């Protein structure tokens, strides 16, 4: 599964770096059309997380994951076949749906096979995935020096081939034991209770709502920092890509060491307090970057990037552990699918939130960091009673019949 993460993210890095350029220069879309395509396909992709998780509770996980990888490959290859806007929109939406569903199922697989080591497994997976993103991005950057239509098409083809390779690797993975799927015989009594439904679990839905806010750090690096620097009179414009590199290097170097501080459910919950401080510091540092010259701007922007990266790593550990600990074992797929809505929703909300902070100025960035910090404290209180009732700090042992 780690090899799958590396191959998958390397391919995604190839496409993410050039998707806007491909739609602009190869298929001839306008800025408004590209923006609409990204927004609509992202909105449709939101459905991938809950549907993928629900299906995985009923069918063999590896087979569903293989099907989704093939779907993603076909969607990517289909983009090469047309410059019709309606078809490009449809193919992008299918790819987005497959991407969000595959992400949830990969997490579900890891949860089922890693047991009490799931936090460390998650940290290693994030490290490998970030290395893949970097490798794909560097390859795309090299290809962009050519700048031809053929170069763009080969990058998209490489993305599609990475999904095919991931599907072939998944074939080699054993099906993990699942408490949600059992073999019934005619002698077994009919089940008297229905599986837990996350859509009726108000506590879990409230937790997912807070997760949507905590996921906003993703928009800081993708939209907030580059735009803030681009519209700054003091900050060097070349600083933006350097801060992205800094973010990537920190995750690769520190995600695994930091994961040890959230190795249990109780420890993960406790990390919400330092996570709150990291978000607050990131927002204040962004605000202070507008108070001086080039040196001051560079210093505080770098401080903000470090703070938000630390927040990203801490939140990844906390989110992984709590989302699993709060989900009943018999409906893990459905629950984790609903949890995946947080990341999907922030893809739409995040750009709006950071652009609002930029438009408001330093006060806006302070409010941005403070809002997420307060949400961390609220989530710390929100999950206390459910975790104490279910006592899920020690994962249940599932006996496989294989």
In a few lines, what is going on in this structure?
The protein is 76% helix and 0% strand.
Which SSEs are present, and which pair or pack?
Layout: H1 2-16, H2 19-26, H3 31-45, H4 48-56, H5 61-79, H6 85-114, H7 118-144, H8 149-171, H9 202-214, H10 217-230, H11 239-259, H12 265-270, H13 272-288, H14 294-325, H15 332-360, H16 362-382, H17 384-390
Helix pairs in contact: 1-7, 1-8, 2-8, 3-6, 3-15, 4-6, 4-15, 5-6, 5-8, 6-15, 7-11, 7-14, 9-15, 9-16, 10-11, 10-14, 10-15, 11-14, 13-14, 13-16, 15-16
Largest sheet: none
The structural class is mainly alpha
Would you report the number of β strands? 0
Q: What fraction, in percent, of the residue positions are helical?
A: over 70%
How many helices does DSSP assign?
17
SSE pattern: HHHHHHHHHHHHHHHHH
Rg calculated over all Cα atoms: 21 Å
Architecture overview:
The structure is a single chain. This protein is mostly helical. Helices cover 76% and strands 0% of the residues. It has 17 helices and no strands. The chain is globular and about 60 Å long.
Summary keywords:
single chain, 402 residues, mainly alpha, disordered C terminus
